[in-house]
Amino acid sequence: MSHMGDVLAGIHSTWEFDTDSVIIRYERGIRTPKLFHVLRERRIPYSALSRVEVSEGSRRGTVALRAVPRPGADPLLDAADGQLKESCDPYRLLLPVGKQTLAEYYATELSSMLGTDAGQPAASHLVAPPEAPLQFKAYDGKAMFDGKSVVFRWFWTGASSAKWKAGDQRFAIGELAGVEWRSPDALGGHLRLLRRGADAPDEQPGEPDQDPATVVFGLGYGLVHESLPLAAAVLAAVRDAEPAPVLETAAAAGAGRPASARPGRADPADIADRIRHLGELHEAGLLTDGEFSAKKADLLAEL
Fold first, then answer.
1. Residue 202, burial from CB neighbour count under 10 angstroms (0-12, 13-18, 19+)
2. DSSP letter string, 237-291
3. What is the pLDDT of residues 49-67, one digit of tens each?
4. Taking the complete model, does pTM exceed 0.85, yes or no?
5. What is residue 145's three-state secondary structure?
6. CA angle 281, 206, 180 (to 5 degrees)
7. Sequence-separated (6 or more) residues with CB below 8 Å from residue 263
């Protein structure tokens, strides 16, 4: 970039051009997409881009400068899998049409910074993922990621009996192969964790509302700016991790497995709350006496 340190201010975001990357800072205005509020600032290496283009903006009287990332370079875009609306595209700078010449100039400058492998998929992620810990509320449970494992904790009001019987779930990054994110803006929105080949069941994954490795979105639940950053962070951790022995789900913790394979000591208040939920299921007839006793013992073993 011939003018290092240049800043191009647009609608909802500002681009600053550094020696080897463009720094995108997102505004937090009322009309700014909430996903941008969460992302705040991102450093995009020029090596992560495949091309740069200028097109007519989505608003009347605007022009769009857009950088297109290489496949595999950004975990956020990989997790989104083409499902983001144009207005939520973090690589799109919307400018007044009067700045079209300026936009075309920077598009040319950026294009000159791209490497010879710009048209090829990236071998690894080149853009940093959202930082853990992250969490969000889905319709049937709460999803949490601490950087090492993903936990699904079911809600009494939304989870199916199949999920309640399976118990709250904990998945270590080492046992995951990836994620499947389906936007909450469409029917069937969900976040599914894909397990590694040797650990996955032989049959195809069940329906999202029946699969303990999936949380289901719904009206007001699993919103894009809440669920996509977590999905991207998990995907990045999975790609960075080497295969590791499978760790059990929370429901199976302590059931005759070696102590070294168990997750860390749980919060006693959290265990008490989960046992209380089990009691409600038991009273409602969704768990037998034996199932209730076994799951209660499993939870107590986490202490």
1. exposed
2. HHHHSPP-PPPPPGGGTTSS--GGGSPPPPPHHHHHHHHHHHHHHHHTTSS-HHH
3. 999 999 998 888 999 999 9
4. no
5. strand
6. 105
7. 149, 170, 247, 250, 253, 302
